[in-house]
Specification:
Elements lengths: L1 E2 L6 E2 L14 H6 L3 H17 L4 E5 L2 E5 L3 E7 L3 E5 L2 H6 L8 E3 L2 E5 L6 H15 L2
Antiparallel strand pairs: 1-2, 3-4, 4-5, 5-6, 6-8, 7-8
The structure holds zinc ion.
Amino acid sequence: MWICPQCGRTFARMEQAHYCGKPETIDQYIDAQDEAVRDRLRAVRQAIRAAIPEAQERMSWSMPTFWKGRNLIHFAASKKHIGLYPGDEAVAAFADRLAAFDTSKGTIRLPHDKPLPLDLIADIARWCMAKHAK
Ligand SMILES: [Zn+2]
């Protein structure tokens, strides 16, 4: 294991090439995360992208974001989970299907040790698009 002295991130390989600054694209953001989480972040991104291909990908609030006239949904890596941020109304609308997950106002926590509910993520993204896209 190697810890980059500049950004403090952890890599399996010594001197692993990576983007060390503030990520400006979703690719840079994902590349900047711990290796163990990258595939999960890619899966979340792919599920959302496939669900709402008309949305633009961008960084907003330092998080990967899907945008159409306004921010629709963000996600971000944390130590123990991926946070999905579709907004209060979406979390309330999907409360039944989210019963197995830790949620709070506008936030869904997808723990690293559970399979990702990719169909549910896609449905939430579609809901956000239908409700909020401009
Ligand atoms: Zn670095």
